[in-house]
Amino acid sequence: MIKSKSMRRGAIAAALALAFAAPAFAAEDAHSHGHAAEEAKLVLDHGKKWPTDAPLRQGMENIRAVVAKGAKDEALAKAVETEVAGIVQNCKLEPEADEQLHIVIAELMAGAEAKDAERVAKALNAYGEHFDHAGWKRL
């Protein structure tokens, strides 16, 4: 069990770095034609929302509930970090959908680190606009 908050955050950051390393390197390799790297941008799957799985939907619903209840500061950061860790560990999407999810997760984590509920809410809304999650409600 990780005892301190900074150690826990470090462990989550390391897990996320490992989870995202392969797609980042693949994108870098695929686009290494001397062009500047393009900024990652959420897109639909040929006009359709990306598929989801149960662990992803549950984790996102849990984060949404925390934000909707008005969690702030450490409570917000801890909830987002915990749920994102669960999503990263348990969610299994096709590579293209997973790449898009990484964009959302990066923004969720940035919002958590900044303890910015509005930023987390925007990331959740972007998730709902780009991922097929029946019953999803914007914040």
Structural class: mainly alpha
- Please tally the helical runs, counting DSSP H or I stretches of 4 or more residues: 5
Q: Could you tell me how far the N terminus lies from the C terminus, measured between alpha carbons in angstroms?
A: 34 Å
> Please, what is the average pLDDT?
82
- Name the shape in a single word: globular
The SSE string, one letter per element, is HHHHH
Percent in strands: under 5%
**Into which percent range does the helicity of residues fall?**
55-70%
Explain what you see.
The protein is mostly helical. The longest helix has 26 residues, at 5-30. 67% of the residues lie in helices and 0% in strands. The protein has a domain at 49-134. Helix 2 packs antiparallel against helix 5 (117-130) and helix 4 packs antiparallel against helix 5. The model is unreliable at 14-37 (pLDDT under 50). It is built from five helices and no strands. The chain has helices spanning 5-30, 54-68, 73-90, 95-114, 117-130.
